[in-house]
Amino acid sequence: MLLKINITRELGVPKLLLFIIEIMIMILAVLLGLRTAGALGCGIFAIVAQLIMIFGFQIPPGSAPVTAVLIILSIGIAGGTLQATGGIDYLVYIASKIIERFPKSIIFIAPMIVFVFVFGIGTANIALSLEPIIAKTAQKANIQPKKALTASVLTANLALLCSPAASATAYIISVLAGYDISMGKYLSIVLPTAMMSMLLLSVFCTFVGKNNPIPSQKLVELPEETLPSEFSKNVKFGVLAFLICVLGILTFGIFPHLMPSFNVNGKTVNVEMTDIVQFFMYLSAAINLLLSKINTSDILTSHISQSAFGALFAVLGPGWLGATIFNAPNNLKILKNDIGQAISSVPWLVIVLVSVVAMIVISQTATASIMVPIVMSLGIPPIYFVAMVQTLNVNFVIPAQPTLLFAVELDETGRTRPTSFIIPGFFVIITSVVIGFTLKLLLGY
């Protein structure tokens, strides 16, 4: 006989206290998973916590975020295929040439290039490849590498939450689609907000802080980057195919009336935007497979695919656990009647709450999978979350992000430290929230 322990009945624990305990178990599971095995561990430990909720707290299991998982899988395969064919190297080569061409404007040019490429490819990993070039170019121009590197690292995060090919964005849009928030509406706020915030961040990094030239004794001859410089036509066509597919996703997201519809039993059925993303991502992968002869193992072991698989579990585990906890009948009543009413009178508390969780969890995808269901359960208008979505990027306080750590390691002058990102980071987050809500009002949402 299966042993069941009904904590509420046996111990007489108040419902609100029980709800808090469940949330604490969720947070502990996510943090323990991240500490143990990164994004993969985050998903695994969250699913273990799911067992505790079902058998210990007698909560019915919620719905797994299957759609979001499938989208992230398609993004990982498409991006991994592009990387395996050499397409990412080609993009890095182009970006490096543009950056090196404008050394005196490196604090503005580098973030712009990073933004464009992260937006188009959907991964901040491309910034890792550009950071050595940014540091070298800044140093040659006698500009503090710290300023250009800080602006570029933080900009990569801004761009990530705009890209339809990013796992975090894919998850957010898949959830918001159920609340009548299309990709077009999402991008109408998030994209211009990120671009304006990027420019203001570059201005901030230019004028804030010491502008002393680099002492000659600290000028170090950085090794030249050994980037590939010759690429076949097939690689170039493959990159073009990937970018056209991303453009296709954007087109259907902004103009949903262009999507095909069908008459099924007298009812008009439209193709879901979440399906469109998968179709175009797999189309991109198929074209690249036809153009270049590569081993499938190279796709699965590529950095982009590995990151996507980690993000997949970071969404599956916490997303499933969150659906179980926050959709439980008793918890739903507490969220709507008690916490929801308190939050509705002071809605800015949600901004603080999301920022604190993002600061601890660090991963945008994992934070989104935890916080988006909570925010929606509180009765906060979905468009409110869109305006404050960049709070998911408060991941610079605890120095654990690869792009941040690599930037610190690269700066031979020693001026870029793990704490160098905190003040510019909060500046750009606050700026993006202010701009986001301003655009929300101007657009009449």
Describe this structure in a few short sentences:
Helices cover 71% and strands 2% of the residues. It has helices spanning 7-11, 15-56, 66-85, 87-101, 106-121, 125-140, 145-160, 167-176, 183-207, 233-254, 273-291, 296-300, 303-326, 329-345, 348-361, 364-377, 382-387, 402-410, 422-442; strands at residues 261-264, 267-270.
Which helices and strands, and how do they pair?
Layout: H1 7-11, H2 15-56, H3 66-85, H4 87-101, H5 106-121, H6 125-140, H7 145-160, H8 167-176, H9 183-207, H10 233-254, E1 261-264, E2 267-270, H11 273-291, H12 296-300, H13 303-326, H14 329-345, H15 348-361, H16 364-377, H17 382-387, H18 402-410, H19 422-442
Antiparallel strand pairs: 1-2
Helix pairs in contact: 2-13, 3-8, 3-10, 3-11, 3-13, 4-5, 4-6, 4-10, 5-6, 5-7, 5-9, 6-7, 6-18, 7-9, 7-18, 8-16, 9-19, 10-11, 13-16, 15-16
Transmembrane segments: 12-32, 38-57, 69-94, 106-128, 149-174, 186-209, 237-259, 279-296, 308-328, 348-376, 421-443
Protein name: C4-dicarboxylate transporter DcuA
Membrane topology: Multi-pass membrane protein
Radius of gyration: 23 Å
- The dominant shape is globular
Provide a count of the helices: 19
Distance N to C terminus: 54 Å
Mean pLDDT: 87
Strand order of the largest sheet: 1-2
DSSP summary, beta strand count = 2
Total domain count: 1
Low-confidence stretches: 1-5, 216-220
Order of helices and strands: HHHHHHHHHHEEHHHHHHHHH
Q: Proportion of β residues?
A: under 5%
Give a quick account of the main beta sheet: strands, pairing sense, barrel closure.
Answer: 2 strands, antiparallel
Helix content: over 70%
GO molecular function: C4-dicarboxylate transmembrane transporter activity
Membrane topology: Multi-pass membrane protein
Family: Belongs to the DcuA/DcuB transporter (TC 2.A.13.1) family.
Keywords: Cell inner membrane, Cell membrane, Membrane, Transmembrane, Transmembrane helix, Transport
